[in-house]
């Protein structure tokens, strides 16, 4: 496996970028930063918008398992 993402084919790079955007949306929502998920979704390639929505849902669910910074004790 290579770590150089530039050597990957274009569809794979697009998918990685969409995944990165989805994780950024979930992160910003978690920390109450201003973000409009619908706007970010419109910025993604049309064929990957369904993938974007599923990844945002995944990251939103995953963030429920983490505490926020600064550290908050679990109840």
How would you describe the overall organization of this protein?
The structure is a single chain. The protein has one domain (9-62): Methane Monooxygenase Hydroxylase, Chain G, domain 1 (Up-down Bundle). The chain has 3 helices and no strands. It has helices at residues 10-30, 37-43, 49-63. Helix 1 packs across helix 3.
Write the layout of secondary structure elements.
Layout: H1 10-30, H2 37-43, H3 49-63
Number of domains: 1
Roughly how many Å apart are the termini?
41 Å
Helix percent reads 55-70%
The string of secondary-structure elements, in order, is HHH
Q: Approximately how much beta-strand content do the residues carry?
A: under 5%
Structural class: mainly alpha
Average pLDDT: 90
Q: What would you give as the CATH superfamily?
A: DNA polymerase III-theta
- Main sheet attributes: strand count, strand direction, barrel closure: none
Annotated CATH architecture: Up-down Bundle
- Number of DSSP strand runs: 0
